[in-house]
Predict the structure.
Amino acid sequence: MRTVLVHTLPRSAAGQLSIWGTLLAFVPLPLLAFAHTRSIKKAVVWALAIAILIEPLQLVIDLATGFPSFVVDVDDMMLQVLGSAAGIVLMALMVRVSSGSKGNGLAPDRG
């Protein structure tokens, strides 16, 4: 029997799709949190809390039900946090651009 100590990210096409899908799925999370709270600090806290707590919640559900319906993976947690971090950067850029503009709030006024 072979023991695997470290789970590595898959290199197949399906694995790459899973990696990018997980990463990109969490980019909108800080934007949605900011739209709801209108506070950058609260949006960051909510986005990171949700990204970090999904995997432990899956583990609790698995242990409580006794049926392994979810796969708990540290790689997923890291990708979720990275996706949220990318969304936080995007949110900060959007807030910076909109705070210095007039009109629709999406781009600086050039006139």
In short: The helical segments are 13-25, 28-37, 40-65, 74-99.
